[in-house]
Design goal:
It is a single chain. The protein has about 40 residues and is an all-alpha fold. Helices cover about 95% and strands about 0% of the residues. The radius of gyration is 18 Å and the shape is rod-shaped.
C-alpha cells in the first residue's frame, strides 16, 4: 500500500465521519424541537 492510497483512505473516512456527525446533529436538533413542542402541549 502506497502513502497516497493511505492518504485517500484517511480522507474518505474523515469525510464519512464528518457527514455522520452532521447527520447526527440534524437528528438531535429535530428531536429537541419535537420535545419542546410536546412540553408546550402539556
Amino acid at each position: 500500500m502506497s502513502y497516497l492510497e493511505l492518504l485517500l483512505i484517511v480522507l474518505d473516512a474523515g469525510i464519512k465521519l464528518t457527514s455522520l456527525i452532521v447527520g447526527l446533529n440534524k437528528v438531535i436538533a429535530i428531536w429537541k424541537k419535537a420535545k419542546q413542542k410536546k412540553n408546550r402541549r402539556d
